[in-house]
Design brief:
Layout: H1 5-14, E1 17-20, E2 30-33, H2 37-51, H3 58-65, H4 68-80, H5 86-102, H6 113-127, H7 130-144
Antiparallel strand pairs: 1-2
Helix pairs in contact: 1-3, 2-5, 4-5
């Protein structure tokens, strides 16, 4: 029996990682990557690629409704933006590869345009956080840097 796409996506998203620690215990909540984080990011990318051929974009809708950008993708990006290890670099790149199609401009005939536009504005607003902008800047300058000869 196949699960509906929303359940499959939510299962993948729950395996990305999550916040640990609670204010009651005196610990600051910090994001911890799941064991299969990179594979889950790649799975989401595959779903988005298939979703690109669909007119109503169910994958983008489910990801938006489940707040995966603020709840998982940006915390993962902030955690891996330094690229200290090869795994961190791969996870960071996979995360960026998901953020790009999630923030593409909408076409005029997009179904559910008002809902999708609201999500798009929420995504763009999330990028305005100081820590997120700094992380994106450090990633881009590292990736686009040309060694001095």
């Amino acid at each position: 029996m196949d699960l509906p796409i929303s359940e499959r996506l939510l299962n993948i998203c729950s395996s990305l990682g999550g916040f640990e620690g609670t204010p009651e215990s005196g610990e600051e909540a910090r994001y911890v990557l799941g064991d299969e984080c990179l594979d889950c990011l790649r799975d989401l990318k595959r779903y988005l690629r298939v979703d690109d051929n669909s007119e109503d974009k169910p994958v983008l809708r489910v990801l938006g409704e489940s707040n995966v950008l603020n709840g998982d993708l940006l915390p993962i990006l902030l955690l891996t933006c330094r690229g200290n290890t090869e795994d961190e670099e791969l996870i960071c790149a996979a995360c960026i590869e998901l953020l790009v199609p999630m923030t593409w401009p909408l076409e005029p005939q997009t179904p559910n345009r008002a809902q999708r536009l609201k999500l798009l504005w929420e995504y763009k607003y999330a990028f305005l956080r100081k820590d997120v902008l700094a992380a994106l800047w450090s990633i881009l300058t590292r990736w686009l840097a040309v060694e001095y000869r």
